[in-house]
Amino acid sequence: MRPRLPAVGLMLLLCGWTCPAVARAESRAIDVGHSTLKVRVFKSGLFSAFAHDHEIEASITQGSVNLSTK
């Protein structure tokens, strides 16, 4: 008969599987020569007949992307 792991041992085992994913999270630079940010805002609601849609686009000058799984 195999001995059972105590609750603490089981928790440590599960942490061992999930914690490396957090440790591998990395940050990558954005390619500013080919990147833009576009924001689109659409009209809605009661007074939408008097409004209009907005679209704003700007080039990105610096930044990075966090690839964590949060």
Structure in words:
This protein has 70 residues and is an alpha+beta fold. It is 24% helix and 26% strand. It has one domain (7-66). It is built from one helix and four strands. The strands form two sheets. Strands 1-4 form a two-stranded antiparallel ribbon. A two-stranded antiparallel ribbon has the order 2-3.
Biggest sheet descriptor? 2 strands, antiparallel
Q: Domains counted in the coordinates: how many?
A: 1
Helicity level, as a percent range? 10-25%
Q: Could you give the order of the helices and strands?
A: HEEEE
* Radius of gyration over all CA atoms, rounded: 24 Å
Regions with pLDDT < 50 over 5+ consecutive residues?
Answer: none
Order of strands in the sheet with the most strands? Answer: 1-4
Structural class: alpha+beta
- Beta content: 25-35%
Kindly report the average pLDDT value.
76
Give the overall form.
elongated
- Figure out the total of helices: 1
